[in-house]
Amino acid sequence: MTNPHVLASIVRASEQCEIVAHQDILDANGVKLWAKNQPISRALQQRLLERKLQQPLESCLRAEDGVTHAALTEQARALLDTKPLLLSGVGPWADALLADIGLLPLHPVAQLLLTAARSNTPNAYQHGVMSMLLAGALATEAGGDRYQVRLHMLGGLLHDLGELYIQGDYLTTDGLPVDRDAWRQICVHPRVGEMLLQRQTDYPRELCRAVGEHHERGNGIGYPARSRQISRLGRSLAAVEVFMGVLGTEHPDAWEHAGLAVRLLPSEFDLAAASFASHAARRHQALGSQPSIPAPDEIWARAQSHKSAIQAALKESWLLGSLAVSPRLTAEAGLVFSILQELLLACDALGLWAPRQLVGEQLHELHLVNQELNYRMQVLPRVVCWMDDRWSGKEQAALDRIWGALRGERLEEATS
Fold first, then answer.
1. What is the C-alpha separation between 364 and 374, in angstroms, rounded?
2. Are 49 and 25 in contact (CB under 8 A)?
3. Same domain assignment for residues 145 and 233
4. pLDDT at 342 over 70
């Protein structure tokens, strides 16, 4: 059956540009639902929802006056002109990357979905264009040839097409999922995008795979597959996704935060990502913008609070792993323990838990660590448990002790 979310997006987009059937649209029994060369309209929407099609809908349609190379280039120029943080990341290679946009292969299916995104979710479309530029810049700085640079640019542009296939109101105003069902939808969108490109376009398999990996991490705590074997392009797209998440704050020190996010746990990202962010931060600092940070005592107190919460959650996850409530719960507890231990040790290695009087110039970095830890501690329960939340009451109570400790709640002594 046709996905209702992408169908609704395409139909809405057809009200702003002409989208036509480039072949007869037939149901599974060969009954013609829509004739070739006929513009689609809302009259077609209900028919498509009720029938299984012989060919995927996306392959049957063309956006005649949709997103073009010229439109992408114009959007990219506008973003570089209005977003200093983006320009700081892309600046040295901006002209070359803008020229390369016209050479990117836009498959009709990809062009159709980009058109739908531009009409329905302009922010998501902008996200793709900005990611395209950052991915190209990252590949260029890392010494990639022109083919690799353009492949990275395509990956950045197309990596989130899978989001068109999931419910649109799955995020709260602060960017976090509204509930676990919403989180599960978010977690599958990379795989949806990978399958779409693999089955309905002629893009290289390397590109399709990387789209499916753009939320994976080298230490196995990403999604949707928790894979540790990530392709080079997939690692680059994952780093770009982190950059975009931080740059969206538009804080003057966003590039410093982005650099810390990709180097905090060395097992997660390549050194090239941290180097790229560091160079971008220097370019942005040269513009003279100064970040405002909380008072030193506030930064220190918050860091100690994070440290105490992580230590308490470490203890609870170790205890849960030793209780052997169930094999899968033991495995989840072990995963949580390894993640938290890696976070704690990474902060130790950075010297961020040093006595207050010794921190000195590290206060700004400690402030950035606080922001990053706060985010990671919020999403950890969903990252760990998204694939299976059908826990028994006893299992859920045991997990809740870990999450409560991570939130800084005082816990009663566990009883067997």
1. 15
2. no
3. yes
4. yes
Q: Quick check: helix, strand or coil at residue 226?
A: coil
Confidence (pLDDT) at 382: 82
- Give the CATH number, domain containing residue 258: 1.10.3210.10
Give the domain extent around 19. Answer: 4-63
Segment 118-155, tens digit of pLDDT: 999 999 999 999 999 999 999 999 999 999 999 999 99
Q: What is the model's pLDDT at position 186?
A: 84
Is residue 366 predicted with pLDDT exceeding 50? yes
CA dihedral 226, 228, 232, 238 (to 10 degrees): 40
Q: 333 and 215 share a domain?
A: no
Q: Is the pLDDT of residue 376 over 50?
A: yes
- CA dihedral sign, ordered 106, 112, 116, 119: positive
pTM for the structure as a whole: 0.93
Q: For the chain, what is the total number of helices (H) and then of strands (E)?
A: 19, 4
| Three-class DSSP category at 105 | coil
Same domain, 152 and 279: yes
Query: What is the rounded distance in angstroms from the CA atom of residue 162 to the CA atom of residue 191?
Result: 7
In the block, tokens 């928790």 appear at: 226
One domain, residues 73 and 178: yes
- Do both 110 and 167 map to the same domain? yes
Other beta carbons less than 10 A from residue 366's beta carbon:
21
Instruction: Give the pLDDT confidence of 163-211 residue by residue, as tens digits.
Output: 999 877 665 545 555 667 778 778 899 999 999 999 999 999 999 999 9
**Does any domain span residue 416?**
no
Which stretch of DSSP H or E encloses residue 372?
helix 363-385
Inform me whether the pLDDT recorded for 307 exceeds 80: yes
Does 259 have pLDDT greater than 80? Answer: yes
Please tell me whether residues 121 and 223 are part of one structural domain. Answer: yes
User: What's the structural domain count of the chain?
Assistant: 3
CB atoms within 10 A of CB 315: 16
Indicate whether 372 and 327 sit together in one domain.
yes
Same domain, 77 and 52: no
Ramachandran region of residue 84, left (φ > 0), alpha (ψ -120 to 50) or beta? alpha
